[in-house]
Design brief:
single chain; alpha+beta; Penicillin binding protein transpeptidase fold; 4 domains; five-stranded mixed beta sheet; 27 helices; elongated
C-alpha cells in the first residue's frame, strides 16, 4: 500500500479512536430522543403530524446540504478543511535557537508563537476565557444552537451580536476559513456567502469536537490566538506584556489578556490604556458573575491599575545577532531540500556557540572599538580621512558614495540631469537616529552629512573556533547589528596582510625542507613575473622600510613579520605553492595569481583565516566550521545532526613546528604578538601564540590568537578602504585588532567555568626532525649605526 494511503488509514483509525466515546454519547442522545418521540407520537394531533413532518424535511434537507458542502458538490460551496488537517492542524510556530550551554538566544518567526501544554497555563486564565467568550463551552459540541437563536433574534431587532463558540473561533484561527479557503460559486451571491462560510465553520467545529477534548481545544485556542503587539499564543503574550510565563499570570493580568481578544488594537494597554482597563474589568465582572471570584475579590482586582513589563519581540532580539543571521543563511538550502520553513515550523535548533563566551566577545569588541574610534577621531581631527595611496585627500569622495545610494538614484530618476534639484533634496536635513558609542542619538542631518558620519565609523569582526571539531564558540560580525547588518565574519572580504605568511612558511616546512632555525638574510628581493603577456617585477619593502642586511632565523622573521624573508621563500618555491596551501588549508576565496599573494594582497574572509589556523593546533587537520549540532522538529524528533569532518592536510610535525612559529611572536625580540603582554592573561599558566596582519595602507588590521584549545581572530577597519589610519604606529593589527582578543581572553580565563582553557601546548606526538628551539638575542653594533640591531642566532637544544 502506498505511503499516502497508509497515512490516511492511520489518521482515520486515530479519528475513530479519539471520537469513539463522543459518538456513543451522540447515539445515546438520538436513541433517548427517538424513544421520547415515539411515546409522544402514539396519539398525535393533525397539527402535530404536520409539524413533525416539516421538521423531518428540514432536518433531512439540512443533512443533505451539509453533505453536499462537505463534498463541495459542483464546486458550489468551496473547499473545507480535510480530516487530516483537523487531526494535525498546521499553525505558524516560531523556531528557536539555543546555545551550546542551553540558553535561548533567538527566534525565527513570521508569527511569534511558541505553543505550551495545558499544564503551563494559569487555570484562572482558562476560566476567564470561558466566562467571557463562551460560558456554555462545556455544554455544547462545537456549535451553541441556543446562542445562535439568540443572535438571530438580536439581528431581527437591529442589534449586532457575536456568537461564535471558542471551537468555532479556533477553526477560524487554525484554518483561516474566511481567507484561505474558496467560497465556491454560491459564495459569489451576497448573503448566501455568509451562510455558506458559517455552515462550513459549524461542520469543522463539530469535527474538531470529535477529535479533541475540551481541555485540548482550550489549549489549542490559547496557543493560536492573536494578542496583538506581534504576540501570537499565550506564551508570547505573557512574555510581551508581563515578562512572565503563562502559569505565572496574576488574575488581573489574565483578565487583561482575555480582554484583548475582542479587539487587540482597540483594547491595547499600550495604545489605549483606558479601553484596556475598561475591558479588563468586564472580564473580571464575568468571573464574578459565574462565581469564579467573590464580589470582594472583584472590587479589589478592579481597582488595581494596569502595570506592564512591555517588550515586543522581533526576529533580531536576543544575543549573537550576527550569528543568528549566519545560522538562518546556512540553513536556507537545508530547509529547501527537506521541506521545512525556518519561520513557521517550530524547529528547535541547537548551535555550537557558548552564550557566556559570546558575551565576553561582544564586551571585548565594544571596549576596544569605543576607545579606537575616539583615537581615530583625534588622529584625523580637522581633516578628512579619505586619502589615496599618496596621502592626498580624494575629492568628491562622499558625493561619489551618495551617487550609489537608492535615494540618489530615485532623485536621478525623478529629475534626470537637473543636478540643482538633486542637490537641493540631498541638502534637506532629516530627522534620524544614528549609532554612537554612548548610545543611539536622535539628530538631524542631510544626506551627505549622514554618509560622512557613517563613513568615519570603524567596524570589526571577531570569531572563535574549537580547532578539534570546528565548533564556532563566538561570533561577532560588527559593532552594532541594529545599525549595521553587514557581517564582517563571513560576508566581508579584505586583505589579510602578513597573516598569509602562515601559508608561505607551512609550504616551506612541509614540502621544501625548511625549518624554524634555518637562516636567511634580510635584504631586498625582486620577483619577475608576467601578467597578460607583459613582463613585470615586484620589489616589496619591509614594514619599516629598512633592510638590515643581517642573517636571521625563519622563526625570528616570522615572529617579527619581516617581508623580505617571506618573499625570498616564495621566490624559491613559487607563489603558486602559496596559493595551493592556502586553498588546502581552507581558503575558498579567489586568490590573485601574483607574487604579492604571499603578503596577503588577496581578499579573504575572517572565518576562512581563523579556520585555516586550526590545523596548527589539531595536529594537521582541516576541520569544517560547525554552527549547528542538531535540529528537532516541533514534535521533538531529531531531523538533523551535524557530521564532523576533518581531513589531514599537513603532517603532524609541520603542524607542531608552525605552532612553535606562532608562539615565537611572544618570545622572539620584536615579535608583533608581544602587545598581548599588555593584557592580564598570563597569570593563569596558559600558553599563547598568534600572528598579526596589516594591509599595506593600514586599511585592515588583523590578529589571530591561539591557545591549546581555541583559535580566535579579529579584523578591524573601515568599510571604505580609503578611510584608515595614516601610520603603522596607529593602524597596525597589533594596535587595532589584537586588543579585542586580549580583552576577550582576560574575561574568559578569569571565569572559573572555563578553567579548561588554562593549559599548555602538548609535547609533540611524533619525532621532530628539524631544529626549533633556537632563540634570538640582540646586540648593538656601533660601526653600522647606534640604532641598528644585529641578530645573532643562539640555538638552545
Amino acid at each position: 500500500m502506498p505511503e499516502s494511503q497508509v497515512a490516511k488509514a492511520r489518521i482515520f483509525k486515530q479519528a475513530l479512536k479519539l471520537s469513539y466515546n463522543k459518538l456513543l454519547k451522540v447515539l445515546d442522545l438520538i436513541y433517548t430522543g427517538w424513544s421520547g418521540f415515539r411515546e409522544w407520537n402514539r396519539k398525535p394531533l393533525p397539527w402535530q403530524k404536520k409539524t413533525v413532518k416539516y421538521i423531518c424535511y428540514l432536518l433531512a434537507g439540512l443533512i443533505i446540504i451539509l453533505l453536499l458542502m462537505e463534498l463541495n458538490f459542483l464546486w458550489l460551496f468551496g473547499r473545507s478543511p480535510k480530516i487530516s488537517q483537523l487531526n494535525n492542524p498546521e499553525i505558524n510556530i516560531s523556531s528557536e535557537l539555543f546555545s551550546s550551554d542551553g540558553k535561548l538566544i533567538g527566534k525565527y518567526f513570521f508569527e511569534n508563537r511558541t505553543p505550551v501544554s495545558s499544564g503551563e497555563i494559569s487555570p484562572l486564565l482558562v476560566k476567564a476565557l470561558v466566562s467571557t467568550e463562551d460560558n456554555r463551552f462545556y455544554e455544547h459540541h462545537g456549535v451553541d444552537f441556543k446562542a445562535t437563536v439568540g443572535i438571530i433574534w438580536s439581528l431581527m431587532h437591529g442589534e449586532k451580536r457575536g456568537g461564535s463558540t471558542i471551537t468555532q473561533q479556533l477553526v477560524k484561527n487554525l484554518f483561516k476559513t474566511r481567507t484561505n479557503y474558496s467560497k465556491g460559486l454560491l459564495g459569489l451571491i451576497p448573503g448566501i456567502k455568509t451562510v455558506n462560510i458559517k455552515l462550513k465553520e459549524w461542520i469543522s467545529a463539530l469535527k474538531i469536537e470529535l477529535f479533541y477534548s475540551k481541555q485540548e481545544i482550550l489549549t489549542m485556542y490559547l496557543n493560536t490566538v492573536d494578542f496583538g503587539s506581534n504576540s501570537y499564543g499565550i506564551k508570547s503574550a505573557a512574555r510581551t506584556y508581563f515578562n512572565c510565563k503563562p502559569s505565572e499570570l496574576k488574575p488581573e493580568e489574565s483578565a487583561l489578556l482575555v480582554g484583548l481578544l475582542k479587539a487587540p488594537t482597540f483594547y491595547s494597554p499600550v495604545i489605549n490604556p483606558e479601553n484596556a482597563l475598561y475591558r479588563r474589568n468586564i472580564v473580571l465582572g464575568q468571573l464574578e458573575k459565574f462565581n469564579v471570584i467573590s464580589p470582594e475579590e472583584y472590587d479589589s482586582l478592579a481597582n488595581i491599575p494596569i502595570s506592564l513589563h512591555y517588550r515586543v519581540e522581533n526576529n533580531y532580539d536576543g544575543t549573537a545577532s550576527y550569528f543568528r543571521e549566519a545560522v538562518a543563511s546556512s540553513l536556507k538550502k537545508w530547509c529547501n531540500e527537506n521541506d521545512y520553513n525556518l519561520y513557521t515550523d517550530g524547529l528547535k535548533i541547537y548551535s555550537t556557540i557558548d552564550s557566556r563566551m559570546q558575551e565576553y566577545a561582544e564586551d571585548a569588541m565594544k571596549k576596544q572599538m569605543k576607545r579606537l574610534q575616539r583615537r581615530f577621531y583625534q588622529h584625523w581631527e580637522g581633516q578628512n580621512p579619505w586619502i589615496d595611496s599618496k596621502g592626498v585627500e580624494i575629492q568628491g569622495y562622499i558625493e561619489n558614495i551618495a551617487r550609489e545610494t537608492p535615494y540618489f538614484k530615485a532623485l536621478q530618476s525623478r529629475f534626470g540631469k537637473n543636478n540643482d534639484s538633486i542637490n537641493y533634496y540631498l541638502d534637506i536635513p532629516r530627522k534620524m537616529t544614528v549609532f554612537t558609542w554612548d548610545g543611539n542619538k536622535d539628530t538631524t542631518l542631510n544626506t551627505l552629512d549622514s554618509i560622512r558620519y557613517v563613513a568615519m565609523l570603524l567596524n570589526a569582526g571577531f570569531v572563535s573556533i574549537d580547532p578539534f571539531n570546528g565548533h564556532i564558540k563566538t561570533w561577532v560580525g560588527g559593532i552594532d547589528f541594529n545599525s549595521f547588518k553587514y557581517d564582517h565574519v563571513r560576508q566581508s572580504k579584505r586583505q589579510p596582510g602578513s597573516l598569509f605568511k602562515a601559508f608561505v612558511y607551512t609550504a616551506a616546512i612541509e614540502e621544501f625542507g625548511f625549518g624554524p632555525c634555518d637562516s636567511m638574510i634580510d635584504q631586498p628581493v625582486t620577483i619577475n613575473y608576467t601578467e597578460r603577456g607583459i613582463s613585470k617585477f615586484w620589489s616589496p619593502h619591509n614594514a619599516d622600510w629598512i633592510f638590515t642586511g643581517m642573517k636571521m632565523t625563519l622563526k625570528h622573521a616570522f615572529a617579527k613579520s619581516v617581508n623580505s624573508i617571506a618573499v625570498q621563500i616564495t621566490k624559491k618555491m613559487g607563489w603558486n605553492k602559496v596559493i595551493e596551501y592556502a586553498k588546502k588549508m581552507g581558503i575558498n576565496s579567489e586568490l590573485n595569481d601574483f607574487p604579492s599573494v604571499c603578503l596577503g594582497a588577496s581578499d579573504v574572509s575572517l572565518i576562512e583565516m581563523v579556520n585555516s589556523f586550526c590545523c596548527f593546533i589539531n595536529n594537521g587537520y582541516l576541520v569544517k566550521p560547525v554552527i549547528v549540532t542538531k535540529i528537532l522538529d516541533k514534535k521533538g524528533k531529531v531531523i538533523y545532526e551535524a557530521i564532523e569532518t576533518k581531513d589531514r592536510i599537513i603532517s603532524e610535525e609541520t603542524a607542531f613546528l608552525m605552532r612553535e612559529m606562532l608562539r615565537a611572536g611572544l618570545s622572539e625580540p620584536g615579535g608583533t604578538t608581544q602587545a598581548l603582554f599588555e593584557h592580564d592573561i598570563f597569570r593563569y599558566n596558559t600558553e599563547f601564540g598568534g600572528k598579526t596582519g596589516t594591509s599595506s595602507n593600514h586599511s585592515d588590521g588583523w590578529f589571530i590568537g591561539i591557545t591549546p584549545s581555541l583559535v580566535s581572530g579579529s579584523w578591524v577597519g573601515s568599510d571604505h578602504r580609503s578611510i584608515h589610519f595614516r601610520t603603522s604606529e596607529m593602524g597596525e593589527g597589533c594596535k587595532t585588532a589584537l586588543p579585542i582578543y586580549g580583552f576577550f581572553m582576560e574575561k574568559l580565563l578569569a571565569d572559573e567555568n572555563f578553567k579548561n582553557y588554562r593549559e599548555h601546548f602538548p609535547k609533540p606526538g611524533v619525532k621532530i626532525t628539524k631544529s626549533y628551539t633556537c632563540h634570538t638575542r640582540y646586540s648593538k653594533v656601533d660601526s653600522i649605526s647606534s640604532d641598528t640591531l644585529v641578530v645573532i642566532k643562539d640555538t638552545l637544544e
